[in-house]
Protein 1
Amino acid sequence: MTTPQDGGLTTVLGRLAHRSVTPAPTLPPPGRLASPGSRTRAVTALAVVAVFALIPLASLVVPWVLPGPVDVLNSAGTLDVLGLCFVFAGVALGYDVLFGFTGLLSFGQVLYFAIGAYGLDITLTVWNWPLLPALLVTLAAGLLVALVLGAISLRGSGIAFAMVTLAFAQVGYYLIEDNPHNLTGGDTGLAMSAARLPSALVGVASTRNLYWLALVFLIVVYAVVWLVTGSSTGRVWLAIRESERRAEVLGYRSFPFKLASFALSSLIATAGGIVYLLLVGTATPDAVASTTVTISILVMVVLGGAGTRWGAVAGAMVYVYLQQYLLKIAAEPSFGALPAVLRVPLSQPSFLLGALFILFILFAPGGVAGLASRVAARVSTRRRKPQAEPREKPVE
Amino acid sequence: MSTFIAITISGLALGAVYFLIASGLSLIYGLMDVLNFAHGVFLTLGAYAGWAVAAHLPGLGFGGVVIAAAAAGAAVAAVTELLLIRPLYGRPISQILVTIGLDLALVGLLEGGFGSDSLSITVPGWLTAVTAVGGERIPNGDFVALGAGLAVLGALTWFLRRTRYGMIIRAGAENRDMVRALGIDVGRAFTVVFAVGGAAAGLAGLLNSVVFSGALVDPTQGDQLLIFAFIVVVIGGLGSIAGSAVAATGVGLVQVYVTFYAGSGAGLAQLGNVSVVLVLAIVLLVRPRGLLGRTA
C-alpha cells in the first residue's frame, strides 16, 4: 500500500501550486492509518466487495429483488440494474470530489459523462478504431476539455461558476442533438458497434463480465478518491471548501487545487461514460448528455451525504436501484388497478425521488451517511450530544 | 430590411419572456441569496393553469387565462417559500438543493397527471393573427409578449421604488440584518418576493407556450427556458433588475439573429443557442460579476 506522501500526481500538483508563493506550512500527515477503526472498516469493505463480486455466480431465488417473473439474483435484469448502480456510484463519487470535498457546485458534470459515452461510441462505431486507442483518446479528450473549460469556469465562484458549467454542458447537449457530420446520431442517439470489442464483452453471455467491469470501475474510482482525498492535496481541498480566503492566506494558491479537483472529477465522469456505453450499448442525448443527469448525480451525492466517500456510493446505488425498481413496479398490471390519487404520483420515480430528496434536505441534511453516523454516535456513547448540523458558508 | 424588422421584433418578444423569468430569479437572489431551480416548474404550472382555464372555463376569456397563469405561479411560489425555503434559512446550499428536489417532484407529478405529451391551449383568433408593419407580417403574439415584458418592467420598477414593500426589499437586498434590526419583518418580504417572481414566471410560461411553442404546453418546457433565464441573470448581474432587462433583450436578439442568419444546415440548427453561451462566457471573462452586478 502506498502512503499518500510518497509522490505521484497529487504531490506534483501540490508542488506546482505553491511553487510561486511563500513557503506553505507543512501539513500534519493524514491520520488515516493510525485510526483504531480502520481495520474493521477495511474488513467490512472487503466483505461488501466480495458479496457483490459473487452475485453473478449465485442463482439464488430472492423474492422482490426486482418485480416481475424473474427473481433470481444473477438474472440478466438484476445484473444490468446493479451494473448501472456501480457506474453511477463511481460517477457520483467523482462528483463528490468536486462538490463534497472541494465545495464547488458544478451543474455541468454530465458534459464529461457524455464525452466518455459519445467519445467511445464515435471512435468505435463511426471511425472504426481499435478499442485501446479509442479508450485512450476518449479519456484524453475528457481531461483536455475539463482543463480548458475548468480554467474558464473557475474564474467565477459560487453561483457564477455553477451557471457557467451549466451553460457549457448545455452547449455539449446542443451539439450532440445537432448531429454534426452525422457523428452523434442526433436525437435518436448512436448504437455502439461491437465489431472491435473483445468477445468477452459481446453477446448475451457478456452480462456477467460487464457487471464485473462496472464493479472494477467503482473499486478503482473508490481507491483513487480515497488516496487523493487523504493526501495533502485533499486536505487543501477541504481547506478551500471551508474558507477559500483562509487557504490562500495560508499560502496556497487555490486555483490549481480547484482545477485539479475539477479535472479529476471530470476524468472519473468520462471513464464512467465509457463504462456506461459498454454496459448499455447505446448513447442518447437524453440519457447521457442532458442536465437532468447532472441533477441526478447531485441528488445521489446529497442523498448519500456530500463529503463522505461511502455516502456518495450508497446514495447513487439507492437512487439508481429505486429508479429502476419503481419504473418496473409502475409497469406491473396490478398497479393499474390503484385509484388515480395513488397511481399518478407513485408511477413517477422522479416525483418519489424528488420528494424523498426534499425530506432528506429538511430533516436529515447529512444524507444517509449523516444519519448513520448519528445513529452510531448515539449507540456508542449515549451521553454524547447529537452532532451539530453541517455548517454552510454563504454562496457568493 | 423588412425581414430584419420582423426578426428584431421576434427577438425583442423572446427577450421579454426571458425578462419575465429572469426578473423573478434576480429579485429572489438579490434579497435572499437563493438560486431558485423550481422557477422552471413555476413557469410550467402557469402554462398548465392557463390551459385548464381555457379548456374548462372558456367563458372567462383570454384575460381569465392570463390571470390564472399568473395567480398559479404566485400561489405555488408563495407556498414554496413558506414550506420549503423558510425552514432552511441560513443554509443557502440546502435552499438551492430543495428547489431542485421540488422541480424534480413537480415535473414528475405533471407527467403523471397530464402525460408527457404536449397539450394544446385554446387561444383567441386575434392572438395568432398577424399585423402588417412596414410590409412585413408580424404575429400579434410578439406584440403581446413585448407589451407584457414592458408592463412588468414598469410595474416592478414602480413596486420597488414607490411602495413600502419595495423599499423593504431593496433595503433587505443591501443589508438584511440591519433591516431586521430596525424591527421590520423581512420574512414577509421574502414571501412577497417569491409570489411576485412566481406571478411573472407563470405569465412567462403562458406567453412562451402561446407565442413561441404553437400554443402547446408540456411538463419540461419550463426547465428548458430556465437555463436561458439563468444565463440572462448571470450576464445581467445577479440581483439587478435593470441588468436582467438589458441582458434579456441582448440574449433574445442574439439568439434570434443567429438562428435566422445561420440557417438550419447540418450542425447549425443549434448555433443560436450556442452563441448565447458564448456571449455568457465572454461577459464573464471580461466582467465576472455581470453587466450591472453589485460588487461583493
Note: Chain A touches chain B through 48 residues (CB under 8 Å).
Protein 2
Amino acid sequence: MQTSWTGHYFDGRTSARHSVTVFLTPTGLEIALPNGSRIFWPYHEVTQAQGAYANEPVRLERGHATPEALVVEDPGFLPSMRTITHRQGRRFRGLREFPRQTRIFVLAGVVSVALLGALALWGIPALAELVTPLVPPAWETALGNTVIPQLAPVDRRCESHRLRENVDRIVARLAAAGPPTPYPFRVTIVESPLFNALAAPGGAIVLFRPLVRSTATPEELAGVLAHEMQHIRLRHATKALVRDLSMAAIVGAVLGDVSGIGSVAVQAGRTLTTLHHSRGDEDEADREGLRLIQAAQLDPSGMIRFFETLKARTAHAELPGYLSTHPETEQRIARLKALAAEVPTYPKPLLPDVRWDEVKNLCR
Amino acid sequence: MQAVVRSPLGSMPAASPASATPYRLSFHGSGGELFGIFILNLLKTILTLAVYYFWAKVRTRQYLWGQTDFAGDRFGFHGTGKELLLGYLKAVVAVGALVLIQMSLNLVEQQILAVLVFWGGLIALWPLALIGALRYRLSRTSWRGIRFSFRGEYQPMLWLLVRGVLLMALTLGLYYPFYQANLRRFLIEHSGFGSTRFTFDGNGKELFGKFILSVLLTIPTLGFIWVWYTALQRRYNWGHTSVAGARFHSTVTGWGLFGLTLVNLLMIVFSLGLALPWATVRTLRYDCTNLVLQGPLDLDSITQQAQAATPAGEELADLLDVDVLPG
C-alpha cells in the first residue's frame, strides 16, 4: 500500500504554501518540509476539516485557535489513511458515496415531510393544550389589553351609559350562571362598518355596532356574548397564539430563516388582531355558550335566531368578518337546535323592563 | 488597452486591470450534494424541534466555503453550532427586551413612545448586527490557514447609518449613491486578511449620473434598469477594492444578472422550491467566475492576525434580516 503522498502544508502563522511529502505511519502523519525538517502529527490530535465530498481535497488540521493545516489532493490518500487509523481506533470520515447517499436523501425527504405534517396536525395542537394552562391569566389579560386600543379606538367607542349598563347586566347574568373564572369580563362596543364580535384573551370582548343593532331581542345578544365568554374561559385565543407561534418558529427554522422568529412577533400581532379560532374551538364555544345560556335560564332560541339573522345576511351580503372563520352557519343552527333540545329549559325573561329596540341603537 | 463593459447605461471604463496574471476564484460545488445537505439538515432540524438549525448552518457553510477556491486553495469555515446557539440566545434577549418594552408601553397607552422606542431600538441594533455578523463571518473564514477579520466599530457605523438615512430623507433618496459608497468604504476598509487590509477608493460622485439616469428610466423600463445599475455598482465597487496592492476586477453584467435571476426564479417556482440548492450553486458559480484579483501580489508573506469575535452579531443579523454584504 502507498504510504507517501504529496500535499501542501500551512503553518497557521503565515500564508506561505509549503509543498510537502506526507508519510502515513502507524501512529501518526509525518510531514517532510522542503527545508528538510520533519513534523509529526499523532492521529488523535488531527481533525478532519474537508474532504468528505468528491471534488474536495482532504484537509486535516491540528491545533486549536489558528490550526496548522495539511491539504492532500490525491483521492487515494483518504482511504489509505482510514485503513491505517481504523486499526488505531481513530475514525476519519470517508467520502460520501452518491448512490447510497441518494437513497438516504430520498428517505430523509419523505420522513421530513411526514414529520412536518404530523407536527402541524397533532403535535402543535397538543403542545398548545399542554402549554396554555401554564400561562397565568394575568398575562392573558395584559396581552388582551394591548390589542383593545387597536380593535376599539377610544374615539369610536360607544359610551352611552344606558347601552353599557344593559349590556353589563346581560354579562353579569351569564357570568353568575357559569363556573367561576379568573377573567374580568368587559364589553366594549365600537362604531364600525364591520359586522363582528371578538374575544381577546383575558376577558375583553369587542362588539361591533352593526352586530348589536341586528339583534331583535336581548336574548340574541346574550347568545353572542355567551359564545365569546366561552372563548375567553376556554382560553381559545391563547391556544391559537401558542399554535401560530410554534408553527412560525418551526417553519422559520426549517426554511433556514430565523428572521422568521422576528416575524413571529408580527405573527403574534396578526393572531391577536384577527383573533381567529379553529373550527374545533368554534364548535366548543357554540356548545358551551348554549349550555351557559341554559344555565342562566335564558331562552336558547335567542342564540339560534341570531345565527338565522346571520344566515340571512350571508345570503345577500358579502361581509366576511364574522363569517369567514366561523363554521357553516346552516350546520351551526342545526347543531345548536339539537343541543338545545337535549336539556329542557324554563326560560326567565332577560331585561323585561327594557325597550331593546331603543337601547340597541344607542351609542353616544 | 482598457477593458470596456457595455450595458444599456452606456460604457464605463473598468478600473484599469494590470497585466499581471489574474488570481481567480472558482466554485466547485454541485447542486446534488448541496441538496443532500439541505435535506439531511431539514430532517435533523425537525427531529430536534429546530435546535439543530445552528449546526445545519455550520454544515452548509463548511460545504460552501470548502467548495470555493482562490488561486488554487480552498477556503475554510471554522464556526461551530454551539457558539451560534449561544449567540442566538444573546440576540433573542436583545430583541426580546425591545419587544417587551414596546408591549409594556402599549399597555400603559403610550403608543407614540412605543413606536419611537421600537424603531429607535431597531436603528441602534442594525449596525450592531451588521458589524457583528461581518466580524463573526470573516473571523471564522480562513484561506491557507490565515484568518480574515473585520475591525469596524459600532459608533462610526451608527453615525454613518443615521447620517445616511437623514440625508436620504432630505434629498428624497438622491443621496443614495453617496451613502452606498460610504457604507462600502467603511465595510471594505475595516476588513482584513491576516496582516493586510482591504482598501476602497471609490466615491458616490462617479455613480451619481448613472443613478439619476436609472431613476429617470425606471418607469419606461418597468424597473428593470435597476438590474443593470446593480451590475454597474458591483463592477464599480469591486474595481475600486484592492488588497496588498492588487485590485479586484468584476465582470458582472446586467444581462448576466438578469439571466441568472430569471432562470433561478423559474427553477425555484417550477420545482416548488426543491431546486433551491441548484439555484444557490448557479449564483455562487456566476459570482466566482466574474471576479478576479489582478496585480502584483505576494501571497506567501501574509501573517496571521486572528481576531476574537462572538457569534451574537451573526444571529442578530439573522433575526433582523440584515443583508450582510450587499452587492
Note: Residues 1-8, 10-19 of chain B have pLDDT under 50 and may be disordered.
